[in-house]
Specification:
alpha+beta; Aminopeptidase
Length: 167
């Protein structure tokens, strides 16, 4: 997909998801926010996590970056780009551990990915998809410059679609 390299910000390093991230993936995918707003992925063991990571990394329509705090060298979240069947350009997503919340990390990381995408000039727009009840995500999506586009029903679930033009 796009941007298959590491991205650095003042406080963060974003690197492509790798099998060595399995412990972090178990923690993140079982966090309250992930389960509530993204969904159960049944990743409980090292083997489950490695299989999940391999599935993500072998799908050309998905890119996950592990977000690591530079000072602690600890992974704190993910930024994702996913080309969904119902969108004509990819959507950006993010998920962070609860203890990383409220520090501006999600904005800093997602903005770095958006800036990198814009710099490549390959996409005309970027989307974000969220549940209408995920107010924290919506606040961040809007802060990143995306505007509400429409609501859609996918697999019996209502989703809000946001977008921004990159041209």
């Amino acid at each position: 997909m796009l941007i298959e390299k590491a991205i650095a910000t003042e406080r963060l390093l974003l690197s492509l998801l790798k099998e060595e991230d399995h412990t972090f993936i178990i923690e993140l995918l079982n966090s309250e926010g992930w389960l509530q707003f993204i969904g159960e992925r049944n990743v409980r063991s090292k083997e489950d996590a490695i299989a999940y990571i391999q599935k993500i990394n072998h799908n050309p329509n998905i890119t996950y970056w592990t977000v690591t705090e530079k000072t602690t060298q600890q992974p704190i979240g993910l930024v994702t780009l996913i080309q969904r069947d119902y969108l004509n350009e990819p959507d950006i997503g993010f998920a962070f551990l609860p203890q990383a919340g409220g520090k501006g990390y999600a904005y800093e990381a997602a903005k770095a990915v958006l800036d990198a995408i814009s710099g490549e000039g390959k996409l005309s727009a970027i989307y974000a998809v969220t549940l209408p009840a995920n107010t924290a995500s919506i606040k961040l999506i809007e802060k990143l410059g995306l505007a509400f586009n429409k609501k859609v029903e996918i697999e019996k679930e209502e989703l809000s679609i946001y977008s921004v033009s990159l041209k």
